[in-house]
Amino acid sequence: MLDKMIVKNLLNRKGQPMSCCDRCERNNVGAKYCSWYNAQMICSDCREAETKREDYADCRKAEREAISRGDFNFHFLPAWKENR
């Protein structure tokens, strides 16, 4: 299932390996996940926090609807930072 996919060995826009979480900016976080809210690559802690948000189900529904319309670059919310 798509939401279980772990994304490894990704490159940032400069072609360098991604080594920190886009949201909390912790280094060497290992496996990265793509946020359901935007294009941020996030660590497992940020992913867990994301699934507990009140609007998570709405976000997932909006993503499915966007994909069915052919919008593969849908962003439910703009990127944000969190302190961990």
Labels describing this entry:
84 residues, mainly alpha
Compose a concise summary of this entry.
This protein has 2 helices and 2 strands. The protein is mainly α and 84 residues long. The longest helix is centred in the C-terminal third of the chain and has 13 residues, at 56-68.
Architecture overview:
It is a single chain. The chain is mostly helical and 84 residues long. It has one domain (2-68). The protein is 25% helix and 5% strand. It is built from 2 helices and 2 strands, in the order ββαα. The protein has a two-stranded antiparallel ribbon with strand order 1-2. The longest helix has 13 residues, at 56-68. It is globular and about 35 Å long. Mean pLDDT is 79; it is low at 1-8.
List the helices and strands and how they pair.
Elements: E1 33-34, E2 41-42, H1 44-51, H2 56-68
Calculate the mean pLDDT score and round it. 79
Low-confidence stretches: 1-8
Distance between the termini: 28 Å
Biggest sheet record: 2 strands, antiparallel
The amount of helix comes to 25-40%
Order of helices and strands: EEHH
- Gyration radius (Cα, Å) is 13 Å
Give the total of domains. 1
- Silhouette: globular
Quantity of strands, as a count: 2
Strand order of the largest sheet: 1-2
| Strand-pairing-aware structural class | mainly alpha
Strand content: under 5%
Q: Given the structure, what is the number of helices? A: 2
